[in-house]
Design brief:
- The protein is built from 14 helices and four strands.
- Strands 1-2 form a two-stranded antiparallel ribbon. A two-stranded antiparallel ribbon has the order 3-4.
- The chain is globular and about 65 Å long.
- The N and C termini lie far apart (49 Å).
- With 410 residues, the protein is mainly α.
Length: 410
Amino acid sequence: MAPLFANIDLAFLITALVKIVGFTFMMILPLVTVCVYFERRFSAIIQDRVGPNRVGIPLTLLGFKSDLQILGIGGLFQAAADGVKFILKEDFTPKFVNTFYYWLAPCLTVVPALLTCAVLPFGSELAIADLNGLITYFGLPALPSIPVQAVIADLNVGPLYIFAIASLGVYGIVLAGWASNSKYPFLGSVRSSAQMISYELSLGLSIIPVFMVFGELNLGKIAFFQDANGWLILPLWGEGLSWGRWVLWIPMMISFIIFTVAMFAETNRLPFDLAECETELVGGYHTEYSSMKFALFFMGEYAAMIIGSGLAVTLFLGGWSIPFGPLLTQLTGIHFHFVPGDTPLWLGLLHIVTFLTKVIGFILFFILIRWSLPRFRFDQLMKFGWLFMFEVALANVLLTAVLMIWVPLK
């Protein structure tokens, strides 16, 4: 039977749509829900509380005398209950707001966060032709033999695309504060714009040493290099064992720390949540929002946190690469590292699971910091960004350049 994807353009279009649906709507959005559960459960563990451990089905709405409590599942359906609550809440729009921009702001917050996931390599490649035996058994058309890259858009300027699109999220926050015509949202939006502009400089400067070392802006190639030569901050196999890589580990570790701190500030997470701090501004820029519009702000924050974690994992923690992959290959005789054009389907799926595991681990670190550290004052936040982070990031670029002059990378 002739292949269904004989037309290369048609094959590209269909695989792109499948990756968009699979990664964005079956990984990122469900991961937002998982993050909500992790936030509740992990904070309860930190504070020695029980946390969500049951979810009630509201049978009283149907005329019953009591709700049905589901026990023994650890509150797994709590996030679903939160989503239903947002849907059923009254969608109230105050009369004093600027209606068009008031409605536009939540969309401008969540959409850029979702668009940035297009360039994140969530795996190596998928040899979908391995399924042809099963597919042709049921009389279906065969799949193409060309492996499918596990990235929606394999751009050579992936980090620049992420920074350019993610920076648009501040417009949603500023519009939310301005359009609400209320003092607390307005103060929150002003704080957020100042904070994001300040820490974007440190965020951008922190990854310049990474690109100087790799000589590459393609996130997929960066992950492939780390798979063969050790992670950027853990060069324990391949050419990463050379003394030159270990000398360069110093500025790379500084870059990782600066990137992580700046990412906390960019996503408005504690201790940098001055834009929405409840003790001062009630709720900040989303004070006047309710129902699904508030839920979109909620989704935008967690989606930005997921994308930031994915970018940190890709640049510094090997992306989808399995720890000690080449060494495991030597010990077991089974290929655990990526070989272009010769990676079986099971290994491609294992790479995707590895990437998601690292991202979830980084998200748990976000949550741990939130429930462990106190909030900065706004003047402390701005001083820390301009008088410390910016200077250290700039000095780290100079340090990397000096080291690269006389340190061999191999």
